[in-house]
Amino acid sequence: MRLPRIFAVAVVLMLGGPAVTLAQGRADTLVVVTEVGPNMMDIHAPGANRPMYQAAWNMYDRLVTFGSKALPDGGKMYDYAALKPELAESWTVAPDGMSVTFKLRKDAKFHDGSPVTAHDVKWSFDRAVAVGGFPTFQMKAGSLESPEQFTAVDDTTFKVAFIRKDKLTLPDLGVPVAIVINSKLVKKNATAQDPWGVEWLKQNDAGGGAYKLESWKPGQESIYVRYDEWKSGPLPRIRRVIVREVPSAGTRRAMLEKGDADISFELPPKDFAELAKEGKLKVTGIPIENSHRYVGMNVVNPPFNNLKVRQAVAHVLPYEKIFSSAFFGRGILLPTPVASNTFGFDPKLFPYKMGDLPKARALMAEAGQPNGFETTLYYDAGRATVDEPAAVLVQEALAQIGIRAQIEKIPPANWRANLTKKTMPIFLDGFGGWLNYPEYFFFWNYHGQNATFNSSSYVNAEMDKWIDAARFETDQKKYAGQVRNMQLVAMRDVPRLPYVQVFLDVAMQKNITGYQYWFHVQLDFRSLVKG
Amino acid sequence: MKPLLRLIGRRLAAALPGVVGVLVVTFLLMRALPGDPAAYFAGMAATREAIEQVRSRLGLDKSLPEQFVVYLRDLARGDLGQSVTTGQPVTRELATRLPASLELTLAALILAVGTALPLGVLAATRSGSWVDQLVRVLTTAGVSLPTFFTGLILVYVFYYLLGWAPSPMGRLDSLYPAPPRITGLYVVDALLAGDLEVARAALRQMALPAITMASFVLAPLARMTRASMLGVLASDFIRTARASGLSRGTVLYTYAFRNAMLPVITTLGMIFSFMLGANVLVEKVFAWPGVGSFALEALLASDYAPVQGFILTMAFLYVLLNLAVDILYGVIDPRVRIEG
After folding, report:
1. Neighbours of A503 (CB within 10 A)
2. How far is CA A388 from the centre of its chain?
3. Does A46 contact B57 at a Cβ distance shorter than 8 Å?
4. Parallel, antiparallel, or unpaired: how do β-strands A211-217 and A157-161 relate?
5. Res. B336 pLDDT band, cuts 50 70 90
6. Is the peptide bond before A495 cis (omega within 30 degrees of 0)?
7. Going along A417-517, which residue ranges are E strands?
8. In what order do the strands lie in the sheet containing A157-161?
9. Is A10 touching B (CB cutoff 8 A)?
10. Any CB–CB contact under 8 A between A145 and chain B?
11. SS3 letters for B39-50?
12. Secondary structure of residue A451 in the 3-state scheme
């Protein structure tokens, strides 16, 4: 039994020696700390989580991407109005406006060195529309619905036929699901039961994007290394990216402040507010486009099916307090549905007087509820950092008009199911749309198609008319009127009360530059520079 | 050797109905929970149609008995299913996460036993003195501070302020390659591979979380040792031993300590199994990729396969652990004879 002695000696040696400095070898390496990492490597697979979008964005190319624009405060964000080439060198829309033809880069290669062809693009798009679930529905949002729409004319020419004229079709080719996959590589690893190779691609990299997957330990870290043969844009400056999963926000903050991590999203708003004030790190907050947080009310079931009751709530909701005490000012106070950086934003459309208690009480009396009622206020436990204080503030405000609300916190798994059931009388939630068009937001949230996110079950033919018209409107003036009308109807009928548009906050070391906001609210490694 | 083997065999056979019971109850309980995994995994912009697609893909549109048969069939093949949250086979997840939890738990336990036993003995031999009071204060503080709080304080002091500890980012800094897998315990594997630097790095990562966990279980161990020692020291055979003029050391260690160990071993077994699965908060603070947080995340997402796999694995571990404790009993006290 010599072993234990060896162990003891080793332990002494190890603990006694000098610490290895962690900064070593990290000059051209970016360390990202995140709460949760990617759960798989295939964005088309069912259950792919949001951090996976970040992996897909950096590992794969799309045909097109978006330009970038400078913000007044010096920050940078993508420009949804400027489509830019990525894998496609150029494209032309047919004279009849019913198809588009892309010319691909001739020098583009996948990570395994094989050339990117139009057949790969066709296979990837076929996969996205056929595999079902989220990718299929996202493609549909741009009127991309069937494989027949996609043709590989020759190796470098790819054609998309339109089934209708839709201004979202081209932008939809720049979202994270519209990736171009190395079809030969995946087909080699596909099986008869799994023709799209989902099981294999979930664990592997078949991309041609600016970063290759170097190693991946699910639940711990994913490491990406620059693909030096990348041709679809200027070669990124960061050579290696380590995305480390650190579940505790306090630990992430400590690592940032100590300089062991370079960049992080996902701290509580309070931490961002403090870090911004202390000035040791760079904190950039950009309002998340086409999004709002809101109080929703069920318009079908009593007691909130009564319009007067909902309007009474609109008069007493503590907008300011929620903004300052739950969100610590990390956002924009937003009482109207259309967000601040989306077409049609106009908070003056808000038709009520905030904090008008007598009016609210009068409305309650008119509604036949002078003494109020009991109800339950729901929120998602996964968002407790901001929604817990917000819920308490709403509860207090409702008590002023006799509405005695019990707060009920729902585990994240049940939240989606609860939204789908549409039985919660009053609740807190939020929504953000990838494509920055107001009617796109309204389509998910206020339209009579009654999607999951229209969680108030709000159905109104007038509203549907404006949303449907706006989607295909080409006259800018008419479009502006339609968007305005959508908001007026929404504010009159109050199926929900928006209160804040939150920031996408990111904290980074002072030597990191080139950060750019993207609609998918994930990190684009390609534009970042360190030092 | 033979009776021991027979004992093990008989104990394992006796545990089988219990494990099967756990299997059935977990399966039913998971499906009785109000969450809807299909709605959860269908993602952001899911329509009802999308949710139904996901449901049939997860096999959740089948009847309960059908689902159970599928589950048993997979289980017979050693397949615990896929975790939808992490996208990985449950067997692979458990195979990487269980060693992480085991390593941390073992380190914490060694640390806790190493401090708790001497403290307990000291408190018992000097019962009522200032040493006893100090031990009482220490153990009370350890058990009454929530582990995540102790953890955050330690991070704040030793990592943030003093810079002695490495950044709390899990088992190993990304600069070091993981040691070749033999036992799955990084420190042991690195030492077996002769890589002292990696072993040291892994040990340094483990120091704070292990201290955090140890401080929490210090109290029950030290109190149990003290109480048990006091009981034994007051017994007749110790008085006889003393009267016979045996030295203080012999009385204390050969006779008293060994006899006092039995209840401590029982406590140890309980603490060990508790620590293995229930240290979610420590795992979170130190980004430790253990089984506790894995199971909790899966539970919160109504992700059936990992929860079932986790509980089944834990049930097996409990059986093995209890067996080990019983065998240890026999080693410490030859009078103890355990029949299956």
Report:
1. 20
2. 22
3. yes
4. unpaired
5. low
6. no
7. 426-432, 496-508, 512-513
8. A88-93, A99-104, A157-161, A150-154
9. yes
10. no
11. HHHCCCCCCHHH
12. coil
Cα of B329 to nearest chain A Cα, Å: 23
Express each pLDDT in A61-87 by its tens digit: 999 999 999 988 778 999 988 999 999
Token pair listed for A295: 């109080």
CA distance A269 to A271: 5
Helix or strand run (H / E) with residue A530: strand A529-530
Q: Which residue type, as a one-letter code, is found at position A259? A: G
Tell whether the model's pLDDT for residue A16 goes beyond 80: no
Residue A503 DSSP symbol: E
Query: Rounded to whole angstroms, how far apart are CA atoms B61 and B53?
Result: 10
Element (H, E) at A374: strand A373-380
Question: What does R_g of chain B's alpha carbons equal in angstroms?
Answer: 24
Asked if B39's CB is within 8 angstroms of A416's CB, the reply is yes
What are B311's two structure tokens?
Answer: 């509980």
Measured distance CA(B18)–CA(B320) in Å, rounded: 13
Q: How far apart are CA B248 and CA B254, in angstroms?
A: 10
Q: Please compute Rg for chain A using Cα positions.
A: 25
Q: In this predicted model, what pLDDT tens digit does every residue of B143-193 receive, in sequence order?
A: 788 888 888 899 999 998 998 888 888 888 877 888 888 888 898 999 988
Judged by CB atoms within 8 Å, which residues 230-289 of A form the interface with B? 242, 244-248, 250-251, 254-255, 257-258, 260-261
Contact B86, B93 (CB under 8 A): yes
Q: Å from B115 to nearest chain A CA?
A: 17
Local confidence band at A132 (pLDDT 50, 70, 90 cut-offs): confident
Peptide bond into A303 cis (omega under 30): yes
ipTM comes to 0.78
Mean pLDDT score, A302-324: 94
Measured CA to CA, the distance from residue A454 to residue A193 in angstroms comes to 36
pLDDT for A98:
94
pLDDT of A348 above 90: yes
Spatial separation of the C-alpha atoms in residues A77 and A44, rounded to whole Å = 26
Pairing mode, if any, of strands A282-287 and A496-508? Answer: antiparallel
For residue A2, the model assigns a pLDDT of 40
